[in-house]
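For practice. Any example?
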Amino acid sequence: MRSRVAAIFDVDGTLFNNPSTERRFIKYLLQRDKFPLKAYLNFLLGAIILLPKGISTVLKGNKYYLRGWSVEETEEILKEFFETLMVPVLQNEVGERVRWHQKEGHLIFLLSGMPSFVLEKFGEYFCVEHLCGSRVKERGGKFLGPLENEHPYGGKKGEVVVRFAEENGVDLKASYGYGDHYTDRHFLKLVGHPVAVNPSKELEQLAEREGWGVVWYQTK
């Protein structure tokens, strides 16, 4: 069977400028008095539980603030948030590249540490089936806080991309990758056409040394 070409996109900071989707969503909830004190306390609880895994997991992989939230109600608020605030910022050069890869018949893979139910909104917007985010456990229609999978960040992103390629017959050396942060190097080094998007200083320096593509753009 002929190998497939993929285009792998980090989301936050790549498909649009920071702040991250999660921070924007939390700010949106705060402005509507829908982020209770209990959410802060649950985040602190999560920080204690996750501390042995390192500070990056505490800060980026901690989804315990969602503990006890109704899945249905959260998704309803998320839908309004995404259509109002996220769709406009996705109309940029990198968003156009997603569309270009789709026209070329490339397999699109969105890879992010944000909660999966949030990442799915990006999948719906771009009509993308292949996604990997942080899957928050659910029970009885409510979020529990812990994750079902390893938080896809740093080196874990590289592992996820290798598994994705194996499962979907993807030739990584013929494929494309887009990321904005130095930690994205783990999966960018795996593809034949890596692109640093609005890169951090360290990633920009790496891209220059390796001869990678670099894209700069502005969004809201």
In short: Strands lie at 6-10, 107-115, 130-134, 136-139, 142-147, 176-179, 193-197, 213-215.
